[in-house]
Amino acid sequence: MSLDCIICTKPYDNGEHALFSTKCGHVMGKSCLEKWASKKDNQSRFNCPVCREFLHISDCHQIFNLPIELLKVKTDDSKDKYLNEDDILEGCFSGKLKKGRTFFMETKYTELKGNKIIHFSDTHNGYILVAGDVIYDCGDWRYEWGGDNRRSFVQIFNGTSIFYSEDFRSVPLTAVEFNKFREDVVEFCVGFENGYLMNRVLSLIENDLGIPNKSVSINGGRKIHSICFLEKKKVVYSVGECNIFSISTDTFCATKSWLRNKNVRSKGITNLSVINNCVLLGVMYGKIYVFEKDKIPYVLYCDEFQWVKSYTYDSITNKLLIFKFVPYCLWDYFETDFNEVRDKMILSREVRSISRVSKYDNEGCRREEYTTYHVQDFQNTTYCLPGNFNSTLISMKYCEKYFTHSFLPDEGNNMLQLHSVNDTFNVVGKKTIENLDQCIGIFALKKPYMPFRCGICTEAYTTIGTEHALCSTKCGHLFGKRCLEKWKNENNDNGKFNCPLCNQSGRDYYSIYNVSKELLKTTSDDGENKCLSEDDVMRRYVLGTLKEKHFFIEQGNKGRQELGNIFIKFIDAYNGFILIVGSPSIAGSRTISFLKIYDGDNIFYNKQFKSGLVTALATNKCCEDNLEFCVGFKNGIILNTVFSLSKGVHGTPHETILFNDNEEINSICYLGHNNIVYSAGDCGVYNIHVDCIHLKKSWLRNAAVKLKTITNLKVVNDSTLFGLMDNKIYVFGKNETPYEIYSEEDLLITSFEYDSVSKIMLIIASKLYDKDRLSRTLKPVLLGIKENHAYETGGCTRRTYTKCSIEKFEKDYYRFPPFSCSLPIFTRRCSEIFTYTFIPDFKNNTLGAYAVNNGFTELANGEKIDCLGSCKRIVALDKPQFFTSKMLKIPIVVVFRNDFAIYNFYTSI
């Protein structure tokens, strides 16, 4: 959940849309809250937009110490007052640190030993790569690039500690690059003047460096100008004059030419960067060129009076940070290799955006080309810096907004400047650093993130419902629940206590619910590869150390201890509640049934049915404010139960018993609150409203068709059902003749599920080799359902449904139990629908997760689960939630023969 106003979904600010909270613990913008309250007829009272609790306007107040400054990038100059993060937090919570301030804080410093001079550098995931020369002569000497009194080196630092070091005798380095596609290892490439291209892969297993995997490619003595990684296992490099090659890092042989059809004047290409796997950018002749694979390069940007020395491409914002120069002396431009210019230059900067435009050639063929447009210059500013200087754009997307910054040294005043690219390139921060005129590069060590901690203990908050969850006083200051309770007890004065920050007196505090979870946990990563809890996932996501994109976390296994001597027959789940219907597993007890409902770890409802065999169970998934379910019995009785839910408290159950002339209840589904449809006996489908049980109506009263037992009823809309009859799936329209929508001769349909939002049907079937013998082969089938409108005689419109095959599952799972089905689980964001399902691999005891919007796309290698061979069903415990803006959390229940387990599945989108 993003930190946006729940009414208008826009970010907060420091003015009219400031952050306000109600006493029930929900936050929203001030202007939206006032507008919401003014719409009500009773001006003095209104309902909370979230929980509907009645409130007075005096029950609402501003929140002050939620770090709104993390969302806004308007900042001032600041002196070096803060020495560590605790000082920053203390200043923030005490009010000394004003909103909009920026400052630099030096965390670590290291000096290279052994007379090393850095010429190249790169960073990735907290690792720093530096490369250059080692000078032997320590006396009076003048460094000259290309001299013989040096050797080359590469060092990688993790903080201030040397992680890896290697020397190269007498061969000058000309290019280095980290593989930023790899998270599991540290991989980099080094290019040399003699044409050697070296690749190194350093394993990261339990913080052990491991043995480096080394590969070398030789390019006929031609100088390597630039290197960039095209993808996880492919590198692209420029060599010689206008030659670009790609090579796989797996084999490091069989290079492929990138420019087969080049038709430009040859020159060395520098500063290669990747737009996508078919398009590169690079500098040639002091201009930025677009190098599309197997196409003729063309100019993207050039300046009539200045030459491009280097640039940085930011893929988040599609912006170019360009460094242009005019050297102190004029030389033959076409004969000079700019990579060899190490003396100081007069540099200027420009930022431009990249876009794609459609063009037509002379033959009328359409072709898309890249172009740039002007954003902003750093006006009237030039810098005298080393010729190999480079910087970067640091961008972050938050609440659908982009925040982009850049750093530039003011060498004349030894001042490092922070520029806000969003805010017309204003200087928003400064830091004095000695010898800044020797700076050759400024890079982001890690992705930016937003720290936010408790104002009492300065520790991170934990998730809602835990000991250190986010709480607010009425004066609008935020603390952890545990700390605030302790403060209240220690400073109690006749039931009142003073706020730890502003000393305002108050009696109560309350929990805050709808705050972005990205802010709740920002402590450092514990280094383990597998996430163990939700807090662990959030911490790694915020820090940028979450390596897995799709994974499971087991939340509990409540059933295995409490349900050891039972046999589960039916299970359903909704809004965090788990309903289990079963019977004791002892002989002769199958006529005794029970119903248990779990809420988290606790059983809050337990009922036995001594004289009735349960044959159907359904939960009303249309209700949000109560829990409603139906239980059907073999003797024709239907028991409908409703629990009211208010602020986590379960009300007294309201039960209604329906009778159906001793016909066995085969299946039940809900059309709405207290409105059910059920199949009974050999051929009956009925609709009844629980409040009007005398008005039972036949669903198919005008159907002239011979019916058999109907099971697996699913609601399409208020006038259409799907159901399973005679091993075929039928459409049962209200008062219409049923018709078949799916069947296959060689498949026995076990069950199916239908998702009305994504219009996807998942069928669990088993393959029949002959009429009498059932093979043990699971065959999930995925169908798309299409609604058609036909006009009948008389002008009436009739809806019909047809199927379109999406995909059959490719894997065959043998010796499977009576597995019923896994419900397609969907969620919607804006206009996009994401649908998932889970299928057990009984052979390997692994649970697989699949995206099913366009077929079965396996998302994870599978979660190892013991005794998966007894799995009967997989259901969604609750609705999927966007755990972060790019990660979805899906809680599921895996049901076994006599127990169940709860998992959260996390997937990046």
From TrEMBL:
Residues 5-52, 454-503 form the RING-type domain. One of its GO terms (biological process) is interstrand cross-link repair. InterPro entries: RFWD3, Znf_RING, Znf_RING/FYVE/PHD. PANTHER family: E3 UBIQUITIN-PROTEIN LIGASE RFWD3, RFWD3 PROTEIN. The lineage of its organism: Eukaryota, Metazoa, Ecdysozoa, Nematoda, Chromadorea. It comes from the Eukaryota. Keywords: Metal-binding, Zinc, Zinc-finger. One of its GO terms (molecular function) is ubiquitin-protein transferase activity. SMART domains: RING. It comes from Strongyloides papillosus. This is RING-type domain-containing protein. One of its GO terms (cellular component) is nucleus.
